[in-house]
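Regression report. Comparing outputs from two consecutive submissions.

Submission 1:
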Amino acid sequence: METQPAKNNISSYIIQSQEEEIKRIALELHEGVGQTLYSLYTGMQFIEAAVNLPDLKGYVGDMGQMLEKTIQEIRLLAVELHPPTLATLGLLPAMKSYLKLYTSTYGITVDLQNEGVEVQISERESITLFRVCQEALANIARYADTMSASILFHWEPSQLLISIKDQGEGFDVDTAMKKSTGLAAMIERMCLINGTCKINSKIGEGTSIEITLPLY
């Protein structure tokens, strides 16, 4: 029978391989498709300025707006896949950058608070924490039916605590765990970096997610 450490190693390898591929796709979206669309958008603006017929001018303007919206969606998708600031600036700046796009896309305001002194953590830990927070925020957008949420980063000498809360509809955790692979993935991802993820929710009272990462 396969031992738990062996399973963890396999899961960790699969996740790492996925992250490398995700990083490649995100870069291609941003540097390739995104830049091409922006060039088309710039050309469309030039054409709109040169057109004199009102009907044609309005049509070109509408096409330009569609391109602009598509560029915004591509940017959000690229950041969701792999935020460029994560490796260069760290977890907190990456989350702040992501939340701006999150709010502009879903209309949900997220209050981010940071307590204590930020400690440098590994890229693997940063990616894992970002993914878990990202999944929690995605669930809020899909199911919570709320316009606000909060994230608290609390740095202690021995651990990092992240608390994500909303006052939305809430759900039955036991039932959701049987149906949602996303919730199970959040817990498993944290286990792979020796952390924890605890999910608490009550119908009609909102949801609270407590994430803990030991700091060595």
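Submission 2:
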Amino acid sequence: MTPLLTVISWSPSYWILEAFTAVWCFVMGSVIGSFLNVVIYRMPLGLNISKPKSRCPVCENPIRTRDNLPILGWLLLRGKCRDCQTPISPRYPIVEALVGTFFLLLYLSIVHSGGALLPFRIPNRFSGGYQILEGRTWDLIALGIYYCYLFVVVLASTYIQFDRELIPRRLLLWCLGIGVLAGCFLPELHPLPARVPVQPAPSSTELLLSELQYYGTLHFNFEPGSLLTVCWGLVYGAIVGILFCWPSLFQTADQRSLFPPRTSWLPLLIGVYLGWQQVVMVGFLSALILALAHLICRNRSSFCDRLPASAFLSGVLTLQLLGGGYLTILPSQTGYLTYLLVTGGQLVTIPILTGLSEAAHRKRETANSTQDQIPLDETSTLTS
């Protein structure tokens, strides 16, 4: 760090800037989380998400502006309607806090770090909030917004499926369309290209030239490489979606599956936004954690029975967005042949893990339904 930057980093104004930026990211995320609650409730029912204003479902009185503040409004009301004292679900502030925390962490991991946690991309030589004032992070800011939009759509889809509703097709199509168009015309949104060369670590001269010529700027133009990255992400997203959700093809209408309709859209969106390498990793880790959760709880009912598979996808996606540089395997790290074997092994393992998860889930469902059909006197006889 240069002497000038050392002085700046120790000045009070620098820390005020850092604190203000962090608080602003959390507040903006919580505001978007508040709007996301409206989307989760209204969009599956075909209601307008902007009109009318939010109101209590019991007394139907509009919620006052001061009571509609994210997180604070629920806390000040002590979780009850001001007019009729009907309890307000704690899920509303939880969603707001989740989105706000994610926005803050994503700012720290992408913008504040200078891209240090991104896969393949050469990080900036400097980090910190002062980069924003110097115009060094326009590409990282755009990438953060791009990732935030993907996150809120996947999170909303997860909550909609948790409520046993169907994910609206327009929510998915809007996300897909924006991902394809923005990804094709803004190359900086895909720091991990479809074809990753096997090359040694860049020299200090290459790092400096790369930062001077590229970082901090946005290039709005169409590049064949960007189109190739989006197309490969689309193809592999569809493959991962089919492999991840294949048990839903054999479910009957009266069975509650871990893979509700349109779950396979979510890996498709992840592939478009993150590229084919990362969607394979997200699909594999989601299937692995899903299988472990259901195998651990295979002999008893648990909260994970209520969770759709999209909850595990959204959880692993969060980790991938925040620390993709540590979770993504590249040919330069393993060698090209080993890289292909590992990637192929992940794709083969995904349907096996999800099949085990669905089998364990159906076994518990069958046991619970059988137990419910046994009369009380027979149950006491069997357990005595």
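Expected: both submissions complete independently.
Actual: both completed, but the second showed a warning that disappeared on reload.
Relevant detail on submission 2: The longest helix spans residues 336-373.
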